[in-house]
Write a structure and sequence with these properties.
The chain has 144 residues and is an alpha+beta fold. The chain contains 3 helices and 9 strands.
Amino acid sequence: MNSEPTGLRVSINAFIVHEGEILLQRRSDNGNWNLPGGGLEIGESLTVALHREVLEETGLTVAITRYIGVYSDPLETTLQYPDGRVLHYIAHVLECRVTGGLLQMDHESLELGWFDPHALPEPFSSQHRGRVADALEGRATVFR
């Protein structure tokens, strides 16, 4: 990364499990695979943002089954975007199960797919690799 963060954002990611596989999104802005999710809007709760982001990015509705953790270490959660913006994220990760909808992409996705969580596709987001590992361990809530 070339510069210091100029903004702070709260975000949410969904670890969506179905028949032993997890749903991943290949992002259109950087080409990496990661967990679906995005930033909270002013006035939203974490759960409202999670449901909105999952529906927008995947076409699915979900039920939250577990809070996995919060990730705030600037070394792991600072991202530089192609337009030059550098943001420090405080990311919350929740485990979910599908309750409805049809899998479909939006403009933020190049691909969506179900994957064995022990065989992640490449290129995979380095920030999300630890989140997947923590989810698979099933530990008590993670704070990083």
